[in-house]
Amino acid sequence: MNLTLVPILAVLVSLVAVPLILLSARKPNLREFWTIAAAVVKFGLVLTLIPTALEGESIRYVLWEIAPDLPLALNADPLGIFFAVIASGLWLLTSFYSIGYMRGHGEVKQTRYFASFAICLSSTIGVAFSANLLTFILFYEMLTIATYPLVIHSETDKAIAAGRKYLTYTLTAGLLLIAAAGITYSLAGTLTFQAGGLIPEGVMDQSTAIILFLLFLGGVGVKAGLIPIHSWLPSAMAAPTPVSALLHAVAVVKSGVFGVIRVVGFVFGPSMMMDFGLDQILIVAAGATIILASLLAFKQDNLKLRLAYSTVGHLSYIVLGAALLTPIGFTGSILHISAHATMKITLFFCAGAIAVNLHKKNISQLDGIASVMPWTMAAFTIGSLGLAGFPPVNGFVSKWYLAYGSLQGDMLIPVLVLVFSGLLNVGYFFPIIKRAYFHEGGSELDNHSEASPFMVVPLTITAVASIIFGIAPNLFLHLFDMASTAATSLF
Amino acid sequence: MIVSDLPVLIPLTFLVSALVVTLFGFWKERWGYPLAVLGTLLAVCLSLYGFFQVMDGSMMRYEVGGWAPPVGIEFVYDTLSAFIVLVINSVALIALIHSRVVGKTEFPGKRGGYYAVAMLLMFGFNGMVITGDLFNLYVFLEISSLSSYALIAIGDKKAPFAAFRYLLIGTVGGSLYLLGIGFLYVVTGTLNIIDMSAMLPQVIDNSAVIGGLILMVLGIGIKAALFPLHGWLPDSYTHASSTSSALIAPIGTKVAAYVVLRIMLYLFGDQLVDIGLPVTSIVGALAALGILYGSIMAMAQSELKKMLAYSSVSQIGYVIMGISLSNPFGFIGAVLHILNHALMKGTLFLVAGNLREREGHTNILKFDESYRKKYPWTMAAFTTAALSMVGIPPMAGFFSKWYLALGTIQNSNWLLLAVILISSLLNAVYFFRVLEKVYMRSSASESTSDTERQEVVPSMLWTTTIAAAALIIVGLFNASIVAVIQHMIPAGL
């Protein structure tokens, strides 16, 4: 089968759905049909690429030159396919969940919501399949703009303020990225991602390298939620929960960490990172973020905010894995993209289901809810255990490889950071579970039962998937093999 | 048609149109519009044809009246001037087609004269771009300036005052430029640009040459609204009629910037470094200050047209900065930005015209959510242009900034790079301020669900959307435009 066109089709399919969604604004069922159809087709297209990724091959498709010597080009390599599988698979589930959530909540402007969501997913797949830095920037900026209407969706003052903050952070980041790309272009004469680094040896000295790396880090670090440039993420929780679930736990933030991996592995390359000591910068930034974010999570009573800070911490697991510069470390890092995605989306789905069903948003109100929402809380428990790193959930596997990777690089401190952060994760998730299961619920819980199946089914699926991929990481999607193929290609 | 006559035919089309419009326009006022559009359409066809003749980097030289240069006046139609002529005439065509309804409401009874003056303005602009003679350039400069004073004076109550101020400042600019030519003529004995540029190396140490250069750049700088010589611009653009601002704002300052480019990169070229004065750095610094000043002032405006006017001050800074970088990337960025900004500002002023026509005002503070329902296409055009101004790929605006950024990197001029990037953010601030009002804030007065669509008439709507669509098309296919621009890069850059 000829797969040449699959990457571009995978990008375009949700973009094509946008006008259809807009045109069927007055027929909600038809409108949602387009979303689901696009999600199914997109996921199917991405799935056909898996065999290619497993062989370590990539599919290159050049659209046209957008600037001299700088084509608008897609390249579906193992890393990109891995990310695309996660993003498009979870979009499918989120689409069902969105329908339940948006209708259950009686939200306004649902057409704008579903249209923006579709553009976001096109951009995310574009980010995953970008063959060069300029194409990457193009989709990265598109993602920024398309997420904005979702952040300000409720149009309250708080949401609008969050939207402004979001734009300030992400547009600034985009500019730093453009500056970094410009400098890279003038140094290397090309912007095409190259496994092992695109900048040739000896074209820059230590200080240039550090400045360039910091520019890149500013560019991709904002979406990756590195402290101290993370604070747009908690604010962006003003968005509807499906947005927080897919975009602010998977698509947008993972584009950021995906960018970090691209910069580390495909722009600088492991050996240059090592030579200039850039890995040290990244390890310190990621390590500090992991610990600080976990501590900040304790303070939050709002469930979504606690999850947001937890996301900030876990994104830096991925960054840390990339900074280790060992094949095993990269494998762990890439695996954690999928592990954190399935677990955190489960938790956000649960938070949304609780909010729609019981109108409770704070942790202190969750007493006894497990008795009325058993499925939801079971899924929540699985997700929390996984994030804390307990087997057999998939969070354990990726964490194991991260720790193994740092030992492979003769580094002990990252291991200690991971262990300590695991304890902190237990510390901030356990009270929620304890309240839900062991505290006596109030009378307002009477007459309530489990949330709508549109929400419960997706969150159960993601929770089960978390366990399946924890026991058998290679089942169905060959996630583990793809991750290790992508990681070894760098060395 | 004889191809070699093209250089002179294009400006002449406008001169003839001016006469025809005057003749018929005074007889029957409503004839002004179709005749002006027809004349401009003809000019666009000629410029398009001419552009394809010289897009490979070749050049047509036309001796006016058969007098051989350097004695006679010469028109030089090379790739660069063909490109600029095509850009300004196309944008003018869009603005003029758009003006049908605006003309009836904003200057009834004066339409005949108005379109005649508009044709004269375009005659002046085309002449400035195509002429190869410094003094002839002055003549065309004055033709275009006098016409633009008249066009700007046709507007709201404050327009005549703004036009008068522009007249005073503009005349000083013209005179400074003339003085500058005088200095150079005394030293070199020629007014022909190609001729003079060949002679300059021998006399470059002469202080009159430096004086001449400074006077010329100052004089044209006023016309280009180069900071801090921009004082005339904001009021003029704000108070002029929608058509005048849509016609003059996108192209007026660009033509002046083009003259700066001709003087600095073609006339002086690599002599600029031997001149004993860091002209390029000074001009670059002024451009950078203008970029920041214009953006900051734009943020403070509550009147949409004034915001756009200050934004023009800022955007012209990009073009001038690209010129001052004196390297290929800077050159590409500057020329591409002339095109991009003409389209962006054209779109934005057309949107302002649409809103004025429907709402009677363009006060940003009074914008609300109902606009999105009432004018979906107009607002979509505005959004496209705004994103392009901010520099979001794949809109056109991103790419000129990209080349300018590469230019600053090539010169290791990190300060200018920072200015380009910061200004993009400032652009985002003042455009999202408007977008937020239109798309987010709920209408203060009534529910918007029953608001009817009240989009403007097709002649206005189509021109606006075509201009906006052009931004995306130019952005996506800018590589082929850049390939042509690469033929324009003067030797030695």
Task: Enumerate the spans of chain B where pLDDT stays under 50 for 5 or more consecutive residues.
Answer: none
Q: What spatial form of chain A do the alpha-carbon principal axes imply?
A: globular
Taken together, the total number of domains of chain A comes to: 1
List SSEs of chain A in N-to-C order: HHHEEHHHHHHHHHHHHHHHH
Number of strand elements of chain B:
2
The biggest beta sheet of chain B reads:
2 strands, antiparallel
Record the strand order, biggest sheet of chain A: 1-2
**Largest sheet composition of chain A:** 2 strands, antiparallel
**Helix percentage range of chain A:** over 70%
Descriptive account of the structure:
The complex is a heterodimer of chains A (491) and B (493). Chain A has one domain (6-488). Chain A has a two-stranded antiparallel sheet with strand order 1-2. Chain A is mostly helical and 491 residues long. Chain A contains 19 helices and two strands. By secondary structure, chain B is mostly helical. Chain B has a two-stranded antiparallel ribbon with strand order 1-2. The longest helix of chain B is centred in the last third of the chain and has 32 residues, at 328-359. Chain B is globular. Classes of the chains: A mainly alpha (491), B mainly alpha (493). Chains A and B meet through strand 1, helix 6 and helix 7 of A and helix 16, helix 17 and helix 19 of B.
Helices and strands in order:
The complex is a heterodimer of chains A (491) and B (493).
Chain A: H1 6-23, H2 28-47, H3 50-54, E1 59-67, E2 70-76, H4 78-105, H5 110-129, H6 133-151, H7 157-188, H8 206-221, H9 232-235, H10 241-268, H11 270-275, H12 278-299, H13 303-323, H14 327-358, H15 374-388, H16 394-408, H17 413-438, H18 453-471, H19 479-488
Antiparallel strand pairs in A: 1-2
Chain B: H1 6-27, H2 32-54, E1 59-63, E2 74-78, H3 79-106, H4 111-130, H5 134-153, H6 159-188, H7 193-203, H8 207-224, H9 233-239, H10 242-268, H11 279-299, H12 304-325, H13 328-359, H14 370-374, H15 376-390, H16 396-410, H17 414-439, H18 458-476, H19 478-488
Antiparallel strand pairs in B: 1-2
Helix pairs in contact in B: 1-2, 1-4, 2-3, 2-4, 3-4, 3-10, 3-13, 3-18, 4-5, 4-10, 5-6, 6-8, 6-9, 7-10, 8-10, 9-12, 10-12, 10-13, 11-12, 11-17, 12-13, 12-16, 12-17, 13-15, 13-16, 13-18, 13-19, 15-17, 15-18, 16-17, 16-18
